[in-house]
Amino acid sequence: MLTPPLRIVSRASRAGLVPVAFAIALAGLGCSAETDSAVDEEPATEEENAVKVDTRTPEGRAQYDANVAFANAYVARCKLPATGKKRAIVTGFGRFMGIANNATGRMAAGLLPGMEYPETSQPPPGAVDPPGPQLSVAAGAVTLPRSGDVELCVMVLPVYWDLAAILLAKEIEAFGPDLVLMNGVAGARQDLWLELGAVNKAAALDDGSDQLRPATSAGASSAPILESATSADQARANLLSWSAVESAARAARDEAAQRSDASGAFGDVLRGVKRAGFPRGSNTYLCNNITYITGYLMDYPGRTVQLLRSNTRVSGKPSYVKTRISRDTRKTPRVFAHWPSELATRHTGAGRDVMRALLDAQLSTNEAPTRGRNTDAAPDLAGGGTF
Fold first, then answer.
1. What is the DSSP letter of 6?
2. Cα angle: 370, vertex 372, 373; to 5 degrees
3. Residue 80, number of CB atoms within 10 A of its CB
4. CA nearest 73: which of 208, 170, 176, 177?
5. Could you tell me if 160 and 60 are in contact, meaning their C-beta atoms sit under 8 angstroms apart?
6. Are 198 and 236 spatial neighbours (Cβ–Cβ below 8 Å)?
7. 72 touches 318 (CB < 8 A)
8. Residue 59 and residue 65: Cα distance in Å, rounded?
9. 378 Cβ partners below 8 Å, 6+ apart?
10. What's the CA gap between 322 and 320, in Å, rounded?
11. DSSP line for 325-385
12. Best CA proximity match to 343, nearest among 166, 99, 136, 179
């Protein structure tokens, strides 16, 4: 039986808000692509994986319209000419909820000289929070110790349901990466978590706009991301050369562990490296959203999904965004990594060195990438069961 679709409700339309402290804590554990608009006369089809969003309030509709307009107008920026060099896309996130300064956006932006982290502030309650200023994208070449010259596409993404995945899909289509490394923050101090997979599940929490959240059926705390995903696609494994990447990341972490600042050592913030299982109840926020959609699109080249679908109809306005990756990326490694949030202001450079080592390991290894397995998860991050 199909479960209810992912819908996003505006702040003004819901009752029984999740307490802010709890929402922040849970969210922190979470954290050709072709789009075209469709007017309300065109019906959704199950085959297109229709996803509904709730835009019944004026505030929610205004934010939705801004997000859809930006998604439809966005043109991929990482269009380096083909050189035969290895390529990787690296994403981080910007501000959301109580995270005004996102470590992953800071670290990712620093991979390319001259790239800037988007410095923005949340607008007053009820106002549209435009996605454009929260996005930073740059492409360029770097030299890594083992891989040599590598071309990077680096993105700092707005923390918005579905929109982040749409933007990433466009860059994957244009850039043709050999690796997609997605990143987000979790606890203030913790191990680096290499996520073994993602799930078709979205927690009922606000995104970075503080206007939109997934709508759930009565009594439910989450909704599916893609309504028509088959039973086999409810949990999607990531693809990586796990041993090579984990070993390289741990070695880089250990080498930098004793670097100290006024507040202590890097090793006290990034405490180790672990593989994290799925499904895992703490990983159903935007980090899981972008990982699940990206993995799904990469595994089904040419398949179109409808994202950001509205459940209200406004004549002449788009009611969803069609997205696909036509490039065959089924064998392209992809993974999501969760980092300590304190790396935004402390030991950011050391954290970036670990990120760089992770990239270098995957791009240079002879270890064939394999699908993530829960049997390889750390015991304290084990996944499994149903949802």
1. P
2. 115
3. 16
4. 170
5. no
6. yes
7. yes
8. 10
9. 191, 274, 275, 276, 277
10. 7
11. --S--TTS-EEEEEE-GGGGTSSHHHHHHHHHHHHHHHHH--SPPEE--GGGS-GGG---S
12. 99
64: CATH: 3.40.630.20
Domain count, the chain: 1
266 part of a folded domain? yes
**1 domain-assigned:** no
Cβ(88)–Cβ(153) below 8 Å = yes
Residue type, 8: I
Number of other residues whose CB lies within 10 A of the CB of residue 352 = 18
Per DSSP, the residues of 96-110 read: BTTBSS-HHHHHHHT
- The helix or strand, by DSSP H or E, that contains position 50, with its residue range, turns out to be none
CA-based end-to-end distance of the chain: 14
Strand-pair category, 7-10 with 212-215: antiparallel
Residues in the chain: 387
Local confidence pLDDT in tens for the 387 residues of the chain? 333 445 555 554 443 333 344 344 444 445 733 444 443 333 334 334 444 566 778 888 899 999 999 999 999 999 889 899 999 999 999 999 888 899 999 999 999 999 999 999 999 988 999 999 999 999 999 999 999 999 999 999 999 999 999 999 999 999 999 999 999 999 999 999 999 999 999 888 889 998 888 877 778 888 889 988 999 999 999 999 999 999 999 999 999 999 999 889 999 999 999 999 998 888 999 999 999 999 999 999 999 999 987 777 788 888 789 999 999 999 999 999 999 999 999 999 999 999 999 999 999 999 999 999 999 999 999 976 532
Cα distances from 310 to residues 40, 203, 218, in angstroms, run 9, 18, 19
Query: Which amino acid is residue 306, in one-letter code?
Result: Q
Asked, for residue 386, whether it belongs to a domain, the answer is no
148 bridge partner residues: 144
Gyration radius of the chain over CA positions: 19
